[in-house]
Amino acid sequence: MNALTEKLSALAAEDAVFVSGARVIAQDGGPVALAAILREIDVTVLERTLVFSIGEVSASLIVAGRRLRGLLSVAGHTDPAIGQPLSREEPETLQAAGTLMAALCDKASRVTVRAEPMQPFGKGGDAGISAKGLAELWSIDLNAKPLPPVARFLTANATTLGGHILVSGTEVVESKGETEALQLIWDEQVMPLRKAQKAIVSKQAGAQMMCFDGPIGTGTAVAVATAGDDACICAFPSDQIPKLTASWQSIIS
Amino acid sequence: MVVDALDTLQTGFAGCETLAFADLSTQMILVTNSNTSSQREALDALCKEAALTLGTKGKIAIGSDQCDTAIVAGQDQLRVFLRASEETSDVLCCVCQPDVDIVGFLPAARACLEQISSGA
Q1: What pTM was computed for the model?
Q2: Between A224, A243, A253, which is nearest B99 by CB?
Q3: pLDDT tens digits for A39-89?
Q4: Which of A213, A222, A232 to mutate to test the interface with B (most CBs of B within 10 A)?
Q5: What is the pLDDT of residues A92-121, one digit of tens each?
Q6: CATH number at residue B114
Q7: How far is A108 from chain B (nearest CA, A)?
Q8: What is the number of structural domains in chain B?
Q9: In what order do the strands lie in the sheet with A111-117?
Q10: In DSSP terms, which residues pair with B24 in a beta bridge?
Q11: Which residue in chain A is spatially nearest to B53 when comparing CA positions?
């Protein structure tokens, strides 16, 4: 039954990305991830156990009527807030739950959700706290949206990049660090290169990063990343090619 | 044998699908791993993309210098192109799943190419 429910959910969710049967709701950590979790609570009307995979940690939350009733379990954690019904009459438990969720989300690279049947939790009279109420109590902007892939890639690797140019449509929206050589490449070589590649790989679609080792000197790599209307060109040390490639793959996967 | 070296590399990394040893001067695929599912047309395109991204004699892809490594990372596929350090027409073209362990794969693929290219 669960497998059928998961498949029906997958079919119903347009543009949703699934990993091992769980829907990806955030590709970033921090407040964006916690906001995504609160939005899931906000759209859950029937009694459900929402199982969130927050990075490597699995957290089961009891949710009903667009309200969070409590944290059923968090793998590897024994916080006092776990297993306690949430209520405004217990502000310390409420805040502890928020602190725990924020800590879990802080460094998570990805958050997924899976809805499972309700499990016994607390007393029947515990209504829980609405997602909007939690957002206020935990100082989370419910509308916080993740950066687009190219901007996210630049932000995630900011300390590694020697310079970069971010372009949206035809407009340069950001230029940082050493960009003289990058600008020249962007102006004169990137478009012909992309056209030539499209002629060879006609099926290539979606986000893509092309990475080159040494085009502006030994020890320096240059990458050109595109996703939708956004594109960037950036330079970084050659020994960081595997790390940045893995970073790009995790963002677009 | 070249095919043995390619097969060893391919079986060592989950998500590594096709490995092709090619000559950029003639833009010909010389040897592939034995269980590749890539058709001839796909291999020809792979070789052309290697020539485009790594650059050929007198034709540089981007910047001012020839590259010895190029990677095309897409949503469905990761393609890696490596040029040998001595015989610069010798290249290794790799087609992998996007979730291949790129951190481990790159140095292993480089070592494989240098071994093949040097005839060791």
Answers
A1: 0.73
A2: A253
A3: 999 999 999 999 999 989 999 999 999 999 999 999 999 999 999 999 999
A4: A213
A5: 999 999 999 999 998 787 899 999 998 988
A6: 3.30.450.30
A7: 18
A8: 1
A9: A18-19, A22-26, A111-117, A48-54, A57-64, A67-74, A129-130
A10: none
A11: A212
